[in-house]
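Homework-ish question, so no full write-ups if that breaks the rules, but can someone show me the predicted structure for this set?
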Amino acid sequence: MKVPIRWLKEYVDFDLSLEALINRLALAGLEISGVKHWGVPLPDGLKLGADEPYPVWDKDKIVIGLVTKVDKHPDADRLKLPTVEYGAGKTITMVTGAPNLSVGDSGQKVVLALSGAVLFDGHATPKVMKELKPGKIRGIVSEGMVCSGFELGISDDHDGIIILEDDAPVGMPLVEYFGDSIIELDILPNKSRCLAIVGVAREVAAMTGGKLKSNPAKITSFGPNISGKIKVTIQNSSACTRYTASLIEAIKVGPSPAIIKRRLIQSGMRPINSIVDITNYVMLEQGQPLHAFDYDLLCLRANGNTPEIIVRFATTGEKLKTLDGQVRELNSETLVIADSLGAIAIAGLMGGIETEVTEKTTRVLLESANFDFLAIRKTMKSLALPSEAATRFSKGIHPEMVLVGANRAMQLMQEIAQGTAAAGIIDCYPTPLAPQVIDFSLAEARRILGIEIPLEQCRSILTSLEFKVENSGKENLRVTVPTHRLDIQAGVADLLEDIARLYGYDKFPETRLAEQLPPVLIDPELDFERKLKDSLVNLGLQETISYSLTSPEAEAAFLDANKTEYVALQNPISSERNVMRQSLISSIITLVQSNLKHTETVKLFEVGKVYQKVEGQKLPLEPYKLALAIGGPKSSAYWAEGTTNRGTLDFFDLKGIVEGMITGVHLEKTSFANANHPALHPGKTAALFIGDKVAGVFGALHPKLAANLGLEKHEIIAGEFDLQALSLGLPQRYLSKAVSRFPAALRDIAVVVDQSISGQTVANEILAAGGNLLKLFSLFDIYEGDRVPVGTKSLAFALTYQADDRTLTDKEVDKLHKKIEDRLKHILKGQIRGKED
Amino acid sequence: MSDLDSLKARALEELAVCEDESSLKNWNSRYFGKNGEMLTALKKVSELPPESRKEYGKLANLVKEEIYLAYDSALKLCLEQAMLQSLQTDKLDITLPGKIPSSGKLHLATQTLRDIQSTFAEMGFQVFRSREVEEDEFNFGLLNMPLHHPARDMWDTFHTTEPGLILRTHTSPGQIHVMRKFYPEPIRVILPGMCYRYEAITTRSEIMFHQVEGLVVGTNISMTDLKGTITAFTRKMFGDDRKVRIRSSYFPFTEPSIEVDMDCIVCGGRGCPLCKKTGWLEIMGAGMVHPEVMKNGGYDPSIYSGFAFGMGPERIAMLRHAIEDIREFWGNDLRFLSQF
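A: Not a homework solution, just the prediction itself:
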């Protein structure tokens, strides 16, 4: 909603700087999204929009002028030489190419810029400011300029110079005549009453203690009564709560007065003709949209009968050519204004071209009606036809506003278009809205707002907003809601809002919650997620968060047999984000891909939801998953270490991260087994088991997929885990082990076994034989090659023997070590290296 | 006797000319090594007649002790001198880069969420999470926005192909879930989570973002409590001297509704590009829980009252770290993420 300050001041006097006004409005719930200036110097203290340059109209150099004659340019057909008077005995002649000034013209009031004036250069885009200097145009000296809106910085229109109203005082500085600031308000849904200058003025009056100057429109004389000249039928009174028709006869349609045109332009609307402009002007001023029909055209359509206005829903397939020249196909949800022949307007949105008011119109049928916001919203959406009127209707207008709008328009049509309003008005208002009365109590104000506002102050705030207030007891008021308010829905709570915002939130104290604390909320999943993330960060991984919206194509290569139907979007922003993801691994691989373009080593993890449809259930499951992905050199290049031989991250680096995570969050009952996953290398993939349940799968990216994704430089190792499944490995508590205070004996063992025997199998046998005294063991070498028989491998372990209660003797250690060797020999048919038989 | 004297004299003489550690070590092995002269001299005692042995042994030990002490202090002196010299010559170029151990980080959004959570935890707020794919009824209807309510225009919504099922546009549906779970207990929770809006992705708007909603319900909760709580939060997050401003606003699920601003952390209120010349930064929307919403959650609004607030962690992070493009968050560029 654009509010020109001069227009606002017609309805309320206030003594605030623009900056102060903007602040006050913002605090009261009317946020300002922008400010535009028409020639006035930048108001003091104003920060908003201060860096957008605009021409400031110099008082002495940009003035109102009178064209006394227009001569022909001797050398150029397109150019003219107007002589402009701008004060007693002050005239000036200049060269112009303005199309709306012709040779022989005189008497027009124009905007004259004298040399030294700073204006936008009419020939430059983007806009540049330029000082006007006397010059020669095709040999003729030109000392000034007649200005267009573009040069003055008030429109983007280059097409012609501004022609002012006839009574514009010659010689007056333009800035005094119509210099202005226009504030743009973001109107919240509960402030739709402020989609009107009067509505904003009412707020300003309440804020400042000023008085609203809203005198009801007075119509001085009437023509013959309207009765018998039009019939109105509302077929669906829930969609059209009220419809009034007035008739204005003997009008002369022409261009609007300059002031109306200017205000329409300031408000972002296009002037058409005086009648259409008046309907728009009244809408901007009062908030009530109006529509004007050419009454004679309605009579013509009625073919001698009394024209009838029927408000009804369109029939499917019904068509109407609207004012913008488009033929629109209507449907059974489109509310239309029709006559006996068919639709003549789309209710609340746009009129039909056939019955529009033109220069030829002499009788106007004025519609001022109230349409249900819901009906208008639906039509607006289905026709994709937003308009100023529809915007207002779609937010709800009180039906009482209908008469306010009609009367104001009739008054202006009399004043401006010399019309005669027919006496009377056809008013179809089947179910009048009952006045809304609310019992207000100070106790409620105390309870919800937490402060003590004197009853008298509450009363005065409500009165300033035009509520009717009666005392009803020491602490109570009986409040009647004014007829421009439809937003009062929650009773006292709504009144409290008006009282609080006008009382001022800055005056509210800050208190601390005194209420007792609620019971403790236990969310083990949240705790687990937090620990998991911390542990992965400690292991050197960077957390990522990617879009949960993806496409089936992007995920196709990554989904295993557990895939479900997608949660799909009806209105995706693009085909790349049209479903909710079912995996994290596909997006994390994409992130590896994008990051490897600029980062050598990438180690990522993500914890997030996937979305799984469940057969027969409306709501999908939203389990949390963990994805891991790494790739690149093991360490970054460092000057003290050289750049070669840094190694490349491989399967065992990711397995190490998984193992680190297991110990980090203390998971138990874990084991690994070979596994398959469509996105992973079949020989380099493992499943993590918790007990006998798979909690996740990880491995090297399948070479084919890697090639498709251009990820061949380094092996990428990735995996996905289910948080719920992982959490099954969480023990109630994990136990500590006492540290032995006795010395440990260290021995190595190297065993040659068949290649098919897994490391885990060997380890299990060592563990089984070692018993309690084998405190630690670790694999430190694997060898396959010339020094062992073909088809075998050598595994070397470092073993630590230690007892908790004594120092082990060499004999004991030898015996135990031998036991392990024997077990490996007998069960795995292994050869102990260095002790070959 | 004179053998020992001459041994001592020679040893000390030779010691005096040792100039470095290695010559000292040589000296040491010459006299105290396996067949060193001193040890040899000591062993000589067994060759002497019994009556001279005692005196010889005594003298030999004295000599041994004397020359060893001399050696020891000479060695110490030598080592100390060597060290002093190395202090002069061993000089690192300390401007060379250090080796940073590779480490991971939490995503900035997670860090910010945790900061918000812990700030509220100190004020007794617990965390309550709820679903993202939500019923229209919970996202709008029960929050006082029946079908076609004009306020629904404030949220551009992703609809799923399942009628009545949408991606939540805010964490507010959690208000209903938590009320229905807690009734009739008092409530003091924050509801963090991912939300979605059908919008063009630009530097300032995203289709997906976190929100942290707060909800307090009890028998004695008022607007001044709301003001106290959010002011405390703002100062804790952004600094002790922050000014907080409350504007009247509108949300369908609160009445009265407010918007909370703080003075701009860049310009302190003078006006700059960050605050779009207003001097104020919007940090959250809030209000007293609407009576209808209270009813929908199961609480009688004539007995209970409450407040709710909502904020965007990404926006808060952007303000704290001067991030100009919200797309950085889900872009997940390590060069961006590793800074936090």
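Now go work out the reasoning yourself. Hint: Chain A touches chain B through 99 residues (CB under 8 Å).
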